[in-house]
């Protein structure tokens, strides 16, 4: 059986562990020890309990005889490089990595640094952890997988086949860079504002927030054009990006975005991975990004209010 290591036992990590467990040997790796009995609630309301192999990173020297065919890094974007560094000494440099981060920060950096294959995944699977450590698979979505340099199609297709066999819908693509930027554009228009104001996604339709959403979209559309990212759904310019963002807002109206969940839990947000690449690109291309910079500054101040020592 193929062996998968899943580094980062958050919601997506545990969903993958449950999904792969019937087909492959799975090791769920975190910073702390986890109970082997893990529970999943399916979108249909079924409760599934499984015994999963779990290890803290500190135990990995004892796992040298259990080397994986794939390592899935499912941490937050800002933690991905450090997470990989924590296990790199125990992996052959040819081990394929699969990156499941939001934004466009960890993906190019790890692709450049890691000598082996690096696949990137973007998913709309909905999952969250309950206070009781159960993972809830809240909604079925679609996962797209590819690599930034179009070098690993057969490996990508093999992983997609495995995911599809587990019941998760997945597709191998050649345009993963564009898809990552596209998701980044939507996240930039939605996540910071809902995190700052403590609202659900659908409330962005209100007059209090919609104008600022439109301002973000205007800046982002210019940046993505400069990055040669095509407008979504065969559309043109700002109008296509506006249509996509508002469609996502409507489709996820009741959702509590991950960035808002981070603020409520007083954790660092992914602002650097979501807003950082856009601001960096705008500066590189000489484009205005005052709206994005203002959002980043507001989020930084909000994080400092609960992360800084008092």
Which features does this protein show?
globular, 17% strand, 4-stranded mixed beta sheet, 11 helices, Rossmann fold, single chain, 310 residues, 8-stranded mixed beta sheet
Distance between the termini: 51 Å
Report the biggest beta sheet as strand number plus sense, adding barrel if it closes: 8 strands, mixed
At the fourth CATH level, what is the homologous superfamily of the largest domain?
A: NAD(P)-binding Rossmann-like Domain
CATH class annotation of the largest domain? Alpha Beta
> Mean of residue pLDDT?
93
Instruction: Report the structural category.
Output: alpha/beta
CATH topology of the largest domain: Rossmann fold
Helix content percent band: 40-55%
Strand order within the widest beta sheet: 5-2-1-6-7-8-11-12
Unreliable stretches (pLDDT < 50, length at least 5) are none
What series of H and E elements makes up the topology? Answer: EHEEEEEHEHEEEEHEHHHHHHH
Shape summary: globular
As a percent range, the share of strand residues is 15-25%
Radius of gyration: 19 Å
Number of strands: 12
CATH architecture label name of the largest domain: 3-Layer(aba) Sandwich
EC number: 1.1.1.169
Keywords: NADP, Oxidoreductase, Pantothenate biosynthesis
Enzyme class: oxidoreductase
Function: Catalyzes the NADPH-dependent reduction of ketopantoate into pantoic acid.
């Amino acid at each position: 059986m193929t062996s998968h290591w899943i580094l980062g036992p958050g919601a997506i990590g545990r969903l993958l562990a449950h999904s792969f467990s019937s087909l492959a040997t799975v090791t769920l790796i975190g910073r702390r020890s986890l109970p082997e009995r893990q529970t999943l609630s399916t979108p249909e309301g079924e409760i599934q309990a499984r015994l999963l192999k779990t290890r803290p990173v500190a135990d990995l020297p004892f796992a040298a005889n259990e080397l994986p065919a794939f390592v899935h890094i499912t941490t937050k974007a800002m933690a991905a490089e450090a997470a990989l560094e924590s296990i790199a000494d125990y992996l052959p440099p040819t081990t394929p990595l699969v990156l499941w981060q939001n934004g466009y920060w960890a993906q190019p950096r790890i692709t450049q640094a890691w000598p082996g294959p690096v696949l990137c995944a973007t998913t709309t699977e909905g999952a969250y952890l309950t206070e009781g450590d159960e993972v809830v698979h809240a909604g079925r979505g679609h996962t797209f997988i590819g690599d930034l340099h179009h070098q690993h199609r057969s490996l990508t297709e093999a992983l997609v086949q495995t995911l599809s066999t587990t019941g998760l819908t997945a597709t191998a693509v050649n345009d993963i860079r564009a898809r990552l930027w596209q998701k980044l554009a939507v996240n930039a228009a939605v996540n910071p504002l809902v995190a700052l104001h403590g609202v659900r996604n659908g409330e962005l339709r209100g007059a209090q927030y919609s104008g600022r959403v439109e301002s973000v979209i205007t800046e982002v559309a210019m940046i993505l054009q400069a990055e040669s990212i095509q407008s979504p759904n065969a559309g043109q310019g700002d109008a296509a990006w506006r249509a996509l963002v508002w469609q996502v807002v409507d489709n996820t109206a009741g959702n509590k975005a991950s960035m808002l969940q981070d603020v409520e839990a007083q954790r660092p947000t992914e602002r650097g991975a979501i807003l950082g690449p856009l601001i960096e690109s705008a500066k590189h291309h000489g484009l205005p990004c005052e709206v994005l910079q203002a959002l980043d500054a507001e989020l930084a101040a909000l994080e400092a209010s609960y992360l800084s020592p008092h």
